[in-house]
Amino acid sequence: MSARILIADDDPAVVESVSWVLEEHGYAVTAVPGAAALLELVGSGEERPPDLLLLDIFMPDGDGVQLLERIKRDPRWRDVPVLMLSSAPVEEATVRTLGLGAADYVRKPFRVKELVARIQAQLRVGAVLRQQRDTLRRTQEELERARADAENRRKLVDILHEVTGDLAADEVYNILARRVARALSVSHCAVILAAPGRDDAVVATAFENAKLQKRPISVGDYPEVREALEHDRPVLIEELSASPLYGLRPAMGLDGTEVPVRSAMALPFTVDSAQRGVFLLRRTREQPPLTPEDVEFAEAVIGAAVAVMQRAQVIETTRADNARLEQLATRDPLTQLLNRRALTERLTTEMERALRYDHSVALLLIDLDHFKRVNDTHGHLVGDAVLRDVSELLLGVARSVDVVGRYGGEEFLVVLPETDDDGAAAFAERIRERVEAHAFRPWDEDRELRMTASIGVASFPAARIESVEDLFARADAALYRAKADGRNRVRL
Question: Using one digit for the tens of pLDDT, what is the confidence trace for 280-315?
């Protein structure tokens, strides 16, 4: 594109000759006849400033030096290189004009090659200056964008500090609605939950009115929400009055009343396979419209928050699964008491503790007498009911520090921390009396079954007991003696 050169000179001969020379060199030349015409052109602001101005210092209707000073005060003309044309002595003209911002001085009568060379030089300098100013402007715009991005990231991090995997989904929704509404300066901000393909939905939370929580709504009353759910994409309506989604219909609030909405956005998200959500944000008519940048920020917040909730659900499910597996690994499925494996681990811990603190620990091995007759006579269901009753009886007698478990079949085990032989024997006698006195009613209240128990007692530390297996063996031997001595008794 040809450089545009403006000539301001009252001498038609100069204008004609300079224009001819410059046009021959490929420049686009226009001219104004004097100071008044130049000032009118500068003040109009209608045309793009030229790439270079040739300005006569002396004109009948104005002083070129004063004109130069006024031109340089105009922001649009500040960077236009100005070559002053004059027949005045070089020193005087140079001092007066260059100090006011003129780019160069050309004395009349001028030499064509010199004039063209000076114009070309100033056009190159002007192009470099414009390029640098454009680069500076773009850098400033990028800096502003970077600052805005940094502020958005700060807001995002600030919000996500509150949104953690320890919060329930309802609490996350409340935090999001409140913090995003404030970050984007919106008057209405809500989370709406809906099942795929259904028109009915529910308000999970609403910044504008906390009482709207759990309120049922119809998706069809909110075109931006319906559009977001149907097409699974963000919907931005910058001006509601010009939106084909609304037309002439008014915007409805979540409470069913008309709301003076100017701008709205609806951002869909997936909760799980059975539920979808929409983040609905609105600004009223006195507020500026929402922008694509607002959508980008809100999407980042919602995406991160949904990821937190989904991660929390995975963690919670994993914890529940682990708890169930732990239950299966350590508990007897019939009585829910500790099983043999868990009992062995707990007894090992108690024996180590007894050695460390110079305490004792006792072990009771309990066997229900003639339990096989119960299964053979009344069936295994009755036998299972009796075993459950015995487990509850033992738990009722045991202290909070004691460990109760099912050793296998009709055998139960109780670990008594910080208990010696005498204390363990007395405790075992109380259990024996409770079992003997208890009326088992596995059928109904009118029929009862009586049981007795034999109990073997062993304690640690003791001679020739160095391991859990040794302690079990000592208790088992004591139980054998109780059986051999007639059952329904305690033996050490």
Answer: 999 999 999 999 988 888 888 777 777 766 665 666
CA distance 277 to 280: 10
CB 232 within 8 A of CB 217: no
In the chain, the domains with their CATH numbers are 4-133 (3.40.50.2300), 169-314 (3.30.450.40), 340-491 (3.30.70.270)
At 147-196, the pLDDT tens digits run: 655 565 555 555 555 555 556 667 778 887 887 888 888 889 999 998 87
Query: Is there a contact between 225 and 276 (Cβ–Cβ < 8 Å)?
Result: no
Give me 138's structure tokens. 């773009």
**Four-residue CA torsion sign, 379, 384, 387, 392:** negative
Given CA atoms 457, 460, 465, 469 in this order, what sign does their dihedral have?
positive
In this structure, which amino acid lies at residue 283? R
Q: What angle do CA 170, 173, 174 make, to 5 degrees?
A: 90
Binned at pLDDT 50, 70 and 90, residue 90 comes out as low
Sheet arrangement for strand 200-206: 216-218, 200-206, 188-194, 275-284, 261-272, 235-237
CB 155 within 8 A of CB 297: yes
